[in-house]
Amino acid sequence: MTVHEKFLALGTHCGKVYLLDVQGNITQKFDVSPVKINQISLDESGEHMGVCSEDGKVQVFGLYSAEEFHETFDCPIKIVAVHPHFVRSHFKQFVTGGKKLILYERGWMNRWKPSVLHEGEGNIRNVKWRGHLIAWANNMGVKILDMVSKQRITNVPRDDISLRPDMYPCSLCWKDNLTLIIGWGNSVKICSVKERHASEMRDLPNRYVEIVFQFDTEFYISGLAPICDQLVILSYGKEISEKTEVECCARPRLDIVQPLPESCEEISSDALTVRGFQENECRDYHLEYSEGEPLFYIISPRDVVVAKERDQDDHIDWLLEKKKYEEALMAAEISQKTIKKHKILDIGLAYINHLVENGEYDLAARKCQKILGKNTELWEFEVYKFKEIGQLKAISHYLPRRDPVLKPLIYEMVLHEFLESDYEGFATLIKEWPGDLYNNTIIVQAVVDHLKKDPQNRTLLRTLAELYTYDQRYGRALEIYLTLRHKDVFQLIHKHNLFSSIRDKIVLLMDFDSEKAVDMLLDNEDKISIDRVVEELENRPELQHVYLHKLFKRDHHKGQRYHEKQISLYAEYDRPNLLPFLRDSTHCPLEKALEICQQRNFVEETVYLLSRMGNSRSALKMIMEELQDVDKAIEFAKEQDDGELWEDLILYSIDKPPFITGLLNNIGTHVDPILLIHRIKEGMEIPNLRDSLVKILQDYNLQILLREGCKKILVADSLSLLKKMHRTQLKGVLVDEENICESCLSPILPSDASKYFNVLVFHCRHMFHKECLPVSSTVSPVQFCNICSAKHRGPGGAILEMKK
């Protein structure tokens, strides 16, 4: 059999030739010979056919013309090949192969002239003609002839000579005009015809052949064909029967391999089931292919199998048949521009149905997002389908919320499903879904009905508050949030500016979270005044204190009218902050504060107030008598820096040895320790007296050292400055026509330089005519600058007297 892109030509053992269309229908029939047809050849146009048979007949004729050639040989002719361009008049050539390879050319007077191209190496087994190159195989190997130069350009020897060439025939095919593929036995060679360089020719043909790929297979080759940069190989092999354990013929295989320089990589392999394959041999199979369309024909004695390259539609069909829907969907998405048979949506819907049938409801719902996209009708159909099987919850989380938006009834149906069985899930959907997806009034009424059965259900109450918020009924939402003490209450107030609604709910807010409530109230004083807040908290002084304390921290003056009230509040609820308040406040009445502190016996606060009111001696007395803390008393005396206080402190401490020790250790830098030591009674036992005296002496020595050091620094600085002043006064002073007398304001120098003049220049740079200055007294002849003396800048003695 041979193949043309328009039809097939099939020869039989009965000598008949049939033309078939690509679907296998017979279109024409030719009775060529009573015996087996050995070979059929077609030119590229498909208009001429060459046929040879077992009885030696060779016919070349036109399928659509009366042109015909007949010849009968005295031996069987196995091969015939017409020129690829036989339709053209100057290419009327064909070759036949038996024991010889003979070329027939039509010459003058339409006579056919035979010429022997090759003989003497056994029967010609195969011939393939492409362009100007003829390749043939005989018992010894494969030859290639260049029809232009009429030279044989190569000989590719047969690898395995142990195989009978008639049982394991050679397969030849041209991939293109210069690439020949040879398959023989289990060996494959890919040969490239190349032009020889002019410098290498000499007596050699102008072309040569290079084997670019060569590899062996694990099977015998019955046929081969190119497909892109890969090879399709029809292979024959044997296997051990499982039943009889005897070697028998295996099914033929169609393999696609990727040639490598010395091996090959198998891409795919398919076993073919043909009738009678158990009795077939390697020579009984042939592979033909159509160059116009990627179709491959496997010919066996009883069957012709058509193979074509799988496309994505075939792959998707196989995946769907195996119920691999996810892979099928992925393959369709990748190849959506090339698939013709399938639609992504149909595959996706089949996938969803498959998941639902298998009980994978969550995965099916999740896939709806991707598969259904923006198709609202399909979404609604799937939702109802999930409702029928009782799985609305599964699809609820994947329903579209924006672009597209489904009918409100769909969302309400899902919410009712959750409300009946899952309050938490219902609350989650209300929080996640925008309020405009459903009829809010219907859902609110449904929640209210459920609350009648369970009025304390916090989940339903919280959800109802959110629904009221969506419905802009913020007052009701706020009441529920406050009842629940919900953390979102402050966010709700800020977001919707509900300050007018909380004027009478300040106590509730403070009870819930006093810190957040106070911060919010102080941040919005323009909406809820300080006076209003204090009034609302009048019956809750502990909360009132929290508010006023935070206000005072922010601004010491804003709540000054409440500072008197705050004294009692601090004393009652927050004593640690009372003293800082008294120190920082400039508006609290000291008498009132003193009264409260004395009533509550707050010593530290009373001491501070007494000292602030000028009663330092009473304050000191309280420290000594109430606190009995000499260190604090000493610290207080240091702060006041009053000699009388030190005297009182010494008098009070003179009969208390521990106090004397404290004084000796701390007053060395403020009071002369001798005053204290002279007053100590003789024989009084004082703790750590020796150490205290040593410390006094060390402090005294330290003071002496500091004074001496300061004195040295002062002397050194004075000397340095004196030297600097001396150097400055030794410098000359420029006097020119621009200078004036500071007394008479006339130029200091006369216009006539020949005249007599007398000028005094002081170190302060003021200049005078001598006659303009008052006469100096005889007691103190030193003259001083009148200007500097008048401004109390110092006298400034004269440094220069100029005369002429």
TrEMBL record:
It comes from the Eukaryota. GO terms for cellular component: clathrin-coated vesicle; cytosol; early endosome membrane; Golgi apparatus; HOPS complex; late endosome membrane; lysosomal membrane. It is a peripheral membrane protein. Belongs to the VPS41 family. Residues 741-789 form the RING-type domain. The keyword Transport applies. CHCR repeats lie at residues 518-662. SMART domains: CLH (SM00299). This is Vacuolar protein sorting-associated protein 41 homolog. InterPro entries: Beta-prop_Vps41, Clathrin_H-chain/VPS_repeat, TPR-like_helical_dom_sf, Vps41, Vps41/Vps8, WD40/YVTN_repeat-like_dom_sf, WD40_repeat_dom_sf, Znf_RING. Pfam families: Beta-prop_Vps41 (PF23411), TPR_Vps41 (PF23556), zf-RING_Vps41 (PF23555). GO terms for molecular function: zinc ion binding. GO terms for biological process: cellular response to starvation; endosomal vesicle fusion; macroautophagy; protein targeting to vacuole. Plays a role in vesicle-mediated protein trafficking to lysosomal compartments including the endocytic membrane transport pathways. Keywords: Autophagy, Cytoplasm, Cytoplasmic vesicle, Endosome, Golgi apparatus, Lysosome, Membrane, Metal-binding, Protein transport, Transport, Zinc, Zinc-finger.
